[in-house]
């Protein structure tokens, strides 16, 4: 029936009103058609997202240019964030707690500045060799600063014992801009649309949903332990 109605779309303009009326009546009488189409579209997009995440996994989890907390962890959490994003700032203390409480979980920080020039500058500073040498100390200081500006970034850098002029010069390195561009392209590929966004074991968690993030970590850890146990059972025992 629906196929017949759609075939009417090829008819002349005089029949458009009749087509619209019949199609509307059919969809009202058969709402499951819309539900089925929506379900298929959702499933299709989910499969595409899963495939994109799988393909992007090396760039997500193993880019040597990224700053990583708990580098020896078996489970990996990737966070896309912006130092001027209020939601990234709100979730930062909870991320700190997860880092401290889960030493077996790697936290990969992806600089994804979307809030203007001050965001871009803060991201660049954190990616300099000097910025990386301060690691989480600099990260926490930048996250803890309200209304972050270029001047305030330089003040934070100075308070941490770094030379602001040297750091500013290092931040202009084209390689740092290339890294940020790569992160933006990666975000587009896996459909990251805002900050913060977390990725854990193929699951994308948009926003500051710390409970969902914690649950995802628990599931990923269990899956990792299960895979280790399975591998051990398959290991041949020497006679």
What would you note in describing this structure?
There is one protein chain. The protein has about 240 residues and is an alpha+beta fold. The protein folds into two domains: about 1-5 and about 15-55; about 65-220, Glutaredoxin. Helices cover about 65% and strands about 10% of the residues. The chain is built from ten helices and five strands. Strands 1-3-2-4-5 form a five-stranded mixed sheet, sandwiched between helices. Strand 4 (about 195-200) and strand 5 form a beta hairpin. Helix 5 (about 115-125) packs across helix 8 (about 165-170) and helix 7 (about 150-160) crosses helix 8 (about 165-170). It is globular, with a radius of gyration of 24 Å. The model has no long low-confidence stretch (mean pLDDT about 85).
Indicate the CATH class of the largest domain.
Answer: Alpha Beta
Count of helical regions: 10
* Terminal residue distance: 69 Å
Structural class, by secondary structure, is alpha+beta
Helix content: 55-70%
Strand content: 5-15%
Radius of gyration: 24 Å
CATH architecture of the largest domain: 3-Layer(aba) Sandwich
Largest sheet: 5 strands, mixed
| The CATH homology group name of the largest domain | Glutaredoxin
Q: How many β-strand runs?
A: 5
How many separate domains? 2
CATH names the topology of the largest domain as Glutaredoxin
- Write out the strand line-up for the largest beta sheet, numbering strands in chain order: 1-3-2-4-5
Kindly report the oligomeric state of this protein.
Answer: single chain
- Which overall shape is indicated by the principal axes computed on the Cα atoms? globular
Average of per-residue pLDDT values? 87
Secondary-structure element order, N to C: HHHEEHEHHHHHEEH
